[in-house]
Amino acid sequence: MKIPRAPFYLVFLLLLLLGCDLFIKETPEVEGVRNVYLSMSDDAVQFLKESNAYDGDYTHCYYEEDGITQNAWIKARGFSSRQAYKRSYTIMFEDSEGNETKYAFNACYYEPSCIRNRLAFETYQDLGIPAPEITASALFLNDEYLGYYDIVPLYDGEDLMDFYNADSLELYKAHFCEYEGNNAFGDEHPLQSLTEKKYPDDDDYEGLNSMIITFLELDDEEWYDWVEDNFDVEATASYCAAHKLLQAQETELFNHYLLIVDGLYTFLPWDNEQCLFDDYSENELGTLHKRLLQDGSPVKSRYDEIMAAFVDDSSAYSEYPQNLLDRVSEYLAQVDSAVYYDLFRAFDYDDFLEQEDYLINNINNRLDYIEANF
Q1: Is the pLDDT assigned to residue 25 strictly greater than 90?
Q2: Strand partners, 150
Q3: How confident is the model at residue 179 (pLDDT cuts 50, 70, 90)?
Q4: pLDDT at residue 5 is higher than 70
Q5: E-assigned strands of 154-253?
Q6: Of 39, 124, 151, 333, which residue has the fewest beta carbons closer than 10 angstroms?
């Protein structure tokens, strides 16, 4: 049973005490989620607070979970969110052979339910796309509760090689922009300044640039033939269908990944925490994805089939929207305590409580939209 909500003036007093370092800190445990405890020196904490999230350096910390403590390295992360009051972090582990494993600890700063990314990524997984497995956590620093965080494994090239049983693979964290008055992807070609190559660790952007140049130079019929031969049509159609089901924000203005597996292009998701909101109900995909979904494109044909199958009770694909609906109540109940005691969310917990009906209603609206249009 939860304790009663504190009046505003008591919460305000608590924030003052925390700021003055007069609050007696204890190491609590939050039910339903992973409890992660970080320990850092005062100098390291100050370094972390002052670091630039976009290109900052790592600093050392001790990472404790389930009674096991290990060395780790941490830095602030995020581009648009790097100036947010509640920051997100990347935590890196390194084994004895120097192999690195990295996790994003996402603060869900802009997202009232704290479960949208998890719902989205599991929908992509349902459709065969290797989106990361998100888990819920309560994060503590030097025994002070920082709040609720999503733990998201960062994409790893070797793991993706194994998943696809691939001989070759390239992974780009892509950000293709179309600005008013500019051409399809902005003025820059090639687009290294807007894209990070994640795997392999080199400066060869030929795979990205050749696709962009081809996109810009071919007419529609030539483009459709090229897509047939150079895109993973099934994976790309599945990605676009999940994106549409989730009414996610415009792909090219937000983070996503471009993947090239044995010469075939497709996409991997990232940052879907702004999905399933009312104001994106008619949201369009970006320039590249729009052209992939033009009539005549092989991706469009398969995409239409998947969209129709979402609302066909005789199809296995109808399980995936139902999975989405079934998970809402379960995941909200799981994160409830972690959100409730998150000081950052002290004044919007009521908004969190409204998310169950809001999300379920939006998902059902999406299904109505799909049934009417596909």
Answers
A1: no
A2: 106, 136
A3: very low
A4: no
A5: 169-174, 196-199
A6: 333
Please give the Cα distance from 109 to 265 (Å, whole number). Answer: 32
The vertex-294 CA angle with 291 and 297, nearest 5°, equals 95
**Domain ranges for the chain:** 22-153+319-373, 157-310
Kindly tell me if the per-residue pLDDT of 247 is higher than 80. Answer: yes
Among 297, 229, 310, which Cα is nearest to 265's?
Answer: 229
Measured between alpha carbons, how far is residue 211 from residues 215, 231, 269, 368 in Å? Answer: 6, 10, 19, 35
pLDDT, one tens digit per residue, over 275-321 is 998 765 455 566 788 889 999 999 999 999 999 999 999 999 999 99
pLDDT at 163: 97
Going by their DSSP bridges, the two strands 135-141 and 34-39 should be labelled as parallel
Residues 249, 275: Cα–Cα separation, whole Å = 6
Q: Determine contact, residues 142/36, Cβ cutoff 8 Å.
A: no
Average pLDDT over residues 229-247: 95
User: Hey, how many other C-beta atoms are within 10 angstroms of the C-beta on 117?
Assistant: 25
Report CA-CA distances (Å) from 35 to 27, 143, 338: 10, 11, 10
Sheet holding 196-199, edge to edge: 196-199, 169-174, 256-261, 264-269
